[in-house]
Amino acid sequence: GSGAPTGDDMQQAEAKARLKRRTATIAIVVIIGSLISLYYTMIPHTPPINRSPFIGLGQVLGEETVRVAGNHGKVAIVVSENHMQEGSPMHDELTECMKMIKRTPGVDVLGTEVLRYDEAAMTSAISSKQLADVIKKYSLANALVILVGLPGADQPQQVDLPARHPALLVVQSDPVRAKSYFERGIV
Fold it and tell me: Considering 23, 54, 141, 181, which has the largest number of Cβ atoms within 10 A of its Cβ?
């Protein structure tokens, strides 16, 4: 022995190197597979949203707005930032409502008020002050469409309506909150 590697030694070294590479590759694939599995089992995934109710609500709201405006007149719309995000179901609702309104040549949209999401209150619903301000701003409108809901129980619900005010059409998911507004003839 000169100590120089023989052909058999080189073949064994190459075989060991291939085995190490193969083992490393398998380990990487197993790790990636485990991470993917963890992702899909640990992270909750929301099911796809059925957009049909939002589209239908927007269409009906648009039709009712035109009816209340008497097929002529002016309307204003109050929405949240979420309604402005393309691709969201709330955007579908707004888009369909606007389509129905714009199909009637005698009805014009005076403006759209976009309310910011209130992180402190965890809501985008209109406050009593905002409602009073919007009613005052659009007092000459025939209809005011509010897609964000009415002020809640934590808000003073006394809204002073001017003698001339628009008809209010409101999307409200809380029937208890809406009841007092209906009883007082506000909406």
Answer: 141
Query: Closest Cα partner for 74 from 150, 137, 147?
Result: 137
Nearest of 65, 60, 171, 159 to residue 109 by alpha carbon: 65
Q: Report which of 187, 181, 174 is spatially closest to residue 123, judged by C-alpha positions.
A: 174
**108-127 residues labelled b (16+ CB within 10 A) or e (exposed):** ebbebbebeeeeeeebbbbb
Position 75: which residue type?
Answer: V
* Residue entry with tokens 């008497």: 70
Q: How far apart are CA 153 and CA 75, in angstroms?
A: 27
Query: Each residue of 152-174: pLDDT tens digit?
Result: 655 555 666 777 788 888 888 77
The letter for the amino acid at 123 is: T
Task: Summarize pLDDT for 17-50 with one digit per residue, the tens.
Answer: 999 999 999 989 999 988 888 887 887 777 788 8
Could you give the angle at which helices 89-102 and 52-68 cross, rounded to 10 degrees?
A: 30
State the greatest distance between any 2 C-alpha atoms of the chain, in Å, as a whole number: 113
Q: How far is CA 19 from CA 11, 13, 29, in A?
A: 12, 10, 15
